[in-house]
Amino acid sequence: MLLMNRQIWSAKNATATVTLQSIDSELAHSISLILTVATTAFSGNLDFQGKEHTGDTYTNLVYQEIDVDGGTRAANDDQLSYTVATNRKRYLIPIAPEFVQLVMTRSAGTISAWVRGSGVPIILPMSLRLVSTGDQQITSLSSATNLTVPAGSRRAVVQILTQGVYYTEDSVTPSSTNGLEADAGDTLEYLDADYSGLLGNLEFIEKVASAKLNIAYYD
Predict the structure, then answer these.
(1) Which of 37, 9, 30 minimizes the C-alpha distance to 121?
(2) Cα separation of 60 and 72, whole Å?
(3) Other C-beta atoms within 10 Å of 187: how many?
(4) Please, what are the domains in the chain?
(5) Residue 148: helix, strand or coil by DSSP?
(6) Tens digits of per-residue pLDDT, 69-84?
(7) Cα–Cα–Cα angle for 192, 197, 200, rounded to 5 degrees
(8) How many CB atoms lie within 10 A of CB 144?
(9) What does the alpha-carbon distance between residue 121 and residue 33 come to, in Å, rounded to a whole number?
(10) End-to-end alpha-carbon separation of the chain, Å?
């Protein structure tokens, strides 16, 4: 399985079109894509578009919204429209064509987006259909900090913002000489198993001052 993570926009405040996948991109061999979209007082539209070859015309792709209560929302290819929206959601494109682009028009606010690619089609069985159990933002990481995991959480997505971090998964204090590191814009996904025992052991500390974390928890 090929997994690639890439930041598309960070607090983007202007209309833009960006190529996510093409024959010469790092996502060239990805079949499935997961897009994380975070908005802050954002008004505008967003389209996931694709085409099979260079002579084709871009059309809207079929996608599924993952972060909904009670399971995965039915697939559709509707344009995403926002009116002064502040939220974070993830969308699955189960079978992506050769060329993929993200088209955004904006009238207010900012938008951030990330894409993750897989070399095999991603299928969400019932056991992995996620229901949110809460969100958290950590803005102070000057000392090693654990997550505050809501009751019933088994999975999580952690976004690193502003500056990079060191982190551990075994309750041992992270540092430049202990644990793993992640850069600003990276996303850590604990989704493919029951991580209820691990989430409480995660610890983070900033590499440089002002690092932040956004965390989404799921059952």
Answers:
(1) 30
(2) 19
(3) 19
(4) 3-124 (2.60.120), 132-218 (2.60.120.770)
(5) coil
(6) 555 566 788 899 999 9
(7) 110
(8) 18
(9) 9
(10) 25
Alpha helical stretches, state H, the chain: 196-199
Taken in order 90, 213, 27, 50, the sign of the CA dihedral is positive
Asked if residue 126 has pLDDT above 50, the reply is no
Q: Name, in order, each residue with C-beta under 8 angstroms of 197's C-beta and a sequence gap of 6 or more.
A: none
Distance CA 117, CA 34 (A): 7
Residue 128 phi/psi, 5-degree rounding, is -110, 10
pTM of the model: 0.57
Question: Which tens digits make up the pLDDT trace of 52-65?
Answer: 888 889 999 988 88
Residue with tokens 């088994």, as numbered in its chain: 154
